[in-house]
Design a protein that fits this description.
Blueprint: H1 7-16, H2 26-36, H3 45-60, H4 65-81, H5 86-97, H6 100-103, H7 115-130, H8 139-163, H9 168-182, E1 187-191, E2 194-198, E3 206-211, E4 221-222, E5 227-228, E6 232-234
Antiparallel strand pairs: 1-2, 2-3, 3-6, 4-5
């Protein structure tokens, strides 16, 4: 997870090589959007800024990539066709339209259990615990902070394993297993490894659940089901 500026990621990629998943920090994206909404001008600028921000957040959290692409195009067209919002439309198209995989939640599916929250929790811990909430301009100090964070997490993990405690992710999996048993959702089978499942909160919305692995491939396993988090994938945001 990185900020929007390419400087640090470019340095990382040069030394460490490309990564399978790169994500923009949602805090930085949200902050950048808020700051640049002042590009919307005119007598109704406040109302249009509010509406624009609401549309951006809705766009960011769409779970279907097909629906996302459709609404993204509509949003850009609307921004460009209004003289009062055109400057923001130009900014958004230049900075975000060609980098949707970095900030849209529909492209974060399949990268872990609630990946966005986990990574942003790490970001917050590093910023306020290891960097004292300060902006660090020197790369070496940032690297040292990351190394201290990694060291402390390794020690914390060893202590938990020694005491036989479950990790936060395992606890979350157990909690979701119990919750899923109590749910009464309508399901239909597509084929041997694919199902349609109705949304818990929006009955008219349906998600597709697919089995993509048959063997355990990691240590994050549900102790009851005896499967790991990579056994199934879902079109919902939280996978």
């Amino acid at each position: 997870m990185t900020d929007i500026v390419e400087t640090f990621y470019s340095a990382w990629e040069t030394v460490m090589g490309p990564v399978p998943h790169r994500l923009f920090c949602s805090w930085h994206v949200d902050k950048a959007w808020r700051q640049n909404l002042n590009k919307i001008i005119g007598p109704q600028c406040k109302e249009k800024q509010f509406t624009g921000y609401k549309s951006l957040k809705m766009l960011q959290t769409i779970s279907s990539d097909t629906e996302f692409k459709k609404i993204l195009n509509q949003f850009i067209i609307e921004m460009m066709n209004d003289p009062e919002t055109k400057d923001f439309g130009v900014y958004f198209e230049r900075m975000y339209a060609n980098r949707t995989t970095l900030w849209a939640y529909c492209y974060r599916k399949g990268v872990g259990v609630n990946c966005n929250m986990h990574l942003e929790s790490i970001h917050k811990t590093k910023k306020y615990h290891y960097l004292n909430g300060c902006k660090i301009g020197r790369l070496d100090k940032s690297i040292m902070a990351i190394r201290r964070f990694t060291r402390d997490k390794k020690v914390e993990r060893m202590i938990k394993l020694t005491k036989g405690k479950s990790t936060t992710r395992i606890q979350e999996i157990k909690k979701r297993h119990v919750t899923s048993i109590s749910l009464n959702l309508k399901t239909s089978k597509n084929d041997a490894k694919s199902w349609n499942v109705d949304s818990e909160h929006t009955p008219s919305k349906t998600y597709v659940v697919k089995q993509i692995n048959e063997e355990i491939c990691c240590v994050i396993v549900c102790s009851t089901c005896k499967i790991c988090i990579h056994t199934f994938e879902c079109t919902c945001l939280e996978k």
